[in-house]
């Protein structure tokens, strides 16, 4: 029998998985990814209402903070240890993609 929560989470995760996959495969720019990831999350009632299962929520919330901490190299302040560059964001995106795929057993 299909777990209803896992089924719904899988449906709602698809847009994030697709976007992250396009980013890690370098089919879209970092700027395009950042803009669209943040906009998608901001307009996602499923995520914003806390509907994702806890482990998926933790992965997504952590990655949201990563995306929010991204600063293009030309704007980075080397003294701000919270800012991450494109290379670090890409590394974290790959890790997030793996974790999310494992959560929904793709």
Automatic annotation (TrEMBL):
Q: Which residues form the Colicin D immunity protein domain?
A: 13-100
Which superkingdom does the taxonomy of this entry point to? Bacteria
- MF-aspect GO terms: toxic substance binding
* InterPro entries membership: Colicin_D_immunity_dom (IPR015287), Colicin_D_sf (IPR036471)
| One GO term (biological process) | bacteriocin immunity
Its name, as the record gives it, is Colicin D immunity protein domain-containing protein
What is the species listed in this Swiss-Prot or TrEMBL entry? Pedobacter psychroterrae
């Amino acid at each position: 029998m299909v777990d209803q929560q896992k089924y719904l989470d899988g449906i709602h995760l698809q847009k994030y998985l697709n976007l992250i996959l396009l980013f890690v495969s370098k089919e879209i720019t970092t700027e395009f990814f950042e803009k669209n990831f943040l906009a998608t999350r901001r307009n996602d009632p499923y995520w914003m209402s806390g509907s994702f299962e806890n482990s998926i929520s933790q992965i997504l919330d952590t990655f949201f903070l990563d995306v929010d901490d991204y600063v293009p190299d030309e704007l980075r302040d080397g003294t701000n240890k919270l800012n991450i560059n494109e290379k670090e964001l890409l590394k974290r995106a790959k890790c997030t993609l793996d974790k999310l795929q494992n959560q929904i057993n793709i």
